[in-house]
């Protein structure tokens, strides 16, 4: 009920709304209304109460509560209702929490989002730094009818969704996708994606795609070793703060749209969107894989999102995973 009360207060703002009127609306006592207002206040909402006039919403915190980030009108599947969004103040890793929920049968479209992670994970066992309430640290659950080897495709889908949500919110910025999972602004990374799955032989149980976006991080929020390679939307946006709530909402909508598109029409529309935002194709790349290093020209991505690289002898190799450095 507290989120419904918040909605009423928001509509009424900057005017007051009487406790009695709300009590009548919800058919509860005035004390029940007061208790819910108190719980909104402890969640960070600045609500003024006056015995004569009632309650008035003065300020909302930029925290990623389900009621604040659920897309309106509702999406088809991803975060289609506030109940599918699990918001935490502090967790180890949102990917880990969501994998546990997935194992317990959570439905497709379930989302875990946190203000802070204590053991945020990146690819190749690296740590991912997630300062409190400065970014969007989020994981999304998919249960697509696919073979396990097609899971890396979800990294491309998520990267396109991030690029699109940023274009909507900050049209002056031009994020570029570096295959497979990095998003860069002015050559510096501001977003990473970690796709994990549970599968056996040729049966895919689920995919968890974790996305980390540095939104309002300042230089000093990054550990020293990252200061020259990392950036944030705030830093790229002339040091102006960006609304995490609006960006998270738009991101969830873009993920849903791309996923629905994929279920209906296959991978082609997403590959086309990915090519539009990529900064990898046509470049000379150095690719590091578990099997060793390789250098060549990045020609294209194939239907699974694998990178096709041609070496100086004209041999083309296909990489489903790996890490690349872009050469000038
Ligand atoms: C990378 O670039 O190496 C991937 C970084 C992925 C970070 C996100 S933050 C939300 C989710 N939870 C995690 O522990 N990792 C991902």
The top-level CATH class of the largest domain is Alpha Beta
Low-confidence stretches: none
Secondary-structure content class: alpha+beta
Strand coverage percent: 25-35%
Ligand kinds:
biotin
The appropriate CATH architecture of the largest domain is: 2-Layer Sandwich
Number of helices: 9
Number of strands: 14
Secondary-structure topology with pairs:
Layout: H1 2-12, H2 19-26, H3 30-42, E1 46-50, E2 54-59, H4 66-69, E3 85-91, H5 94-103, E4 111-117, E5 135-142, H6 153-169, E6 176-178, E7 182-185, E8 188-200, E9 203-214, H7 233-236, H8 244-265, H9 268-277, E10 284-289, E11 292-301, E12 307-310, E13 316-319, E14 323-327
Parallel strand pairs: 3-4
Antiparallel strand pairs: 1-2, 4-5, 5-9, 6-7, 7-8, 8-9, 10-11, 10-14, 11-12, 12-13
The protein binds biotin.
Could you describe the 3D structure shown?
This protein has 328 residues and is an alpha+beta fold. Helices cover 30% and strands 29% of the residues. It has helices spanning 2-12, 19-26, 30-42, 66-69, 94-103, 153-169, 233-236, 244-265, 268-277, and strands at 46-50, 54-59, 85-91, 111-117, 135-142, 176-178, 182-185, 188-200, 203-214, 284-289, 292-301, 307-310, 316-319, 323-327. It has a 7-stranded mixed sheet, sandwiched between helices. A 5-stranded antiparallel sheet has the order 13-12-11-10-14, with no helix packed on it. Strands 1-2 form a two-stranded antiparallel sheet. It binds biotin. The site of biotin has 22 residues, from helix 5, strand 5, strand 8 and strand 9.
């Amino acid at each position: 009920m507290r989120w419904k009360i918040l909605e009423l207060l928001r509509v009424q703002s900057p005017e007051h709304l009487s406790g009695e009127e709300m009590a009548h609306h919800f058919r509860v006592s005035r004390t029940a209304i007061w208790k819910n207002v108190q719980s909104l206040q402890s969640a960070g909402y600045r609500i003024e109460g006056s015995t004569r006039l009632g309650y008035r919403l003065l300020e909302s915190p930029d925290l990623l509560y389900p009621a604040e980030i659920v897309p309106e009108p509702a999406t088809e599947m991803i975060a289609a209702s506030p109940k599918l969004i699990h918001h935490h103040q502090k967790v180890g890793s949102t990917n880990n929490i969501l994998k546990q929920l997935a194992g317990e049968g959570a439905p497709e479209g379930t989302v875990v989002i946190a203000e802070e992670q204590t053991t945020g994970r990146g690819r190749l066992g690296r740590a991912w730094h997630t300062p409190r309430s400065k970014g969007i640290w989020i994981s999304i659950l998919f249960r697509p009818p696919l073979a396990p080897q097609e899971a890396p495709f979800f990294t491309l889908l998520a990267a396109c969704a991030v690029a699109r949500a940023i274009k909507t919110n900050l049209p002056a910025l031009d994020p570029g996708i570096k295959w497979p999972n990095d998003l860069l602004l002015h050559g510096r990374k501001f977003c990473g994606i970690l796709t994990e799955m549970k599968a056996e032989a040729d049966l895919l149980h689920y995919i968890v795609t974790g996305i980390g976006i540095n939104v309002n991080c300042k230089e000093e929020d990054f550990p020293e070793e990252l200061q020259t390679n990392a950036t944030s939307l705030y830093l790229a946006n002339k040091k102006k703060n960006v609304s995490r709530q609006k960006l998270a909402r738009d991101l969830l909508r873009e993920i849903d749209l791309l996923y629905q598109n994929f279920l209906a029409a296959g991978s082609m529309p997403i590959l086309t969107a990915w090519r539009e935002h990529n900064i990898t194709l046509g470049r000379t790349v150095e690719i590091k894989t578990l099997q060793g290093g390789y250098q060549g020209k990045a020609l294209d991505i194939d239907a699974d999102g694998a990178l096709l690289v041609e070496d100086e002898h004209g041999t083309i190799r296909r990489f489903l995973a790996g890490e690349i450095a872009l050469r000038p």
